[in-house]
Amino acid sequence: MSQSLDRALTLLGGLARGGKTLDELAEEIGVHKTTVLRLLRTLESHHFVRREGTRHYRLGSALFDLANQALEDRDVRRSSHEALAALNLRTGHTVHLASYEDGEVVYIDKFEGHHAVRMYSRVGKRAPLHCTAVGKVLVAAMPRAKREGIAHAITYVVLTANTITTPEQYLAELDQVAERGYAVDNAEHEDFIHCIAAPVRGAGGEVLAAASMSVPKVLLDYDGLLALAPELLAAAEEASVHSGWTGNGKGQ
Q1: What residues contact 234, with CB distance under 8 A and at least 6 apart?
Q2: Its pTM surpasses 0.85
Q3: Phi and psi for 110 in degrees, rounded to 5?
């Protein structure tokens, strides 16, 4: 990668965490302010960066346009949208669609819950595999050798008292997910939220993504969460049908 491109991408990554001054950006990438200013002017001319006043810079509209175009290009997002929007409308709970990318979960769609409690998640945000229901669904669908490789490569960051902490625990959990057809995050990622997830399949029966429903514990206990499984599974199946799945591994 060229040095200028690397620096420009580093600048964008820094601005993704909030607006910054020229001095702050120069310190962050370790170069002189004139170099940073030159990069910022180029990025600004293409609307990847916008200037606020004379000192602060923020991400510009072009970056968001590119992100939306990239997300719209994911066929599973388009094909699942109607079924997941209807699930959100029926239940009032937050619904996500997530895919696997480079050892992490990536949220590719979100339908916000109708209650006051909000989740940290947003479209494009990444999350761990070991403590999210969507992560468990995505890994459980992989061939056993790959599943085991991922399980032993994970850094088991403990986020709550319920977070899985070893490869052995994780693999046992994945076996259960594969057997019952859905996964549960029992307040493993955020201690006030629990979640249930199911696979969205493609024409050949492959798992394209995972759909989930997340509920604050103050609104619904664990048994109440599990009672939502048939509702989620039906929506995931509908999304799968729209993605080409017929239930027998053959496309429409």
Answers
A1: none
A2: no
A3: -150, 135
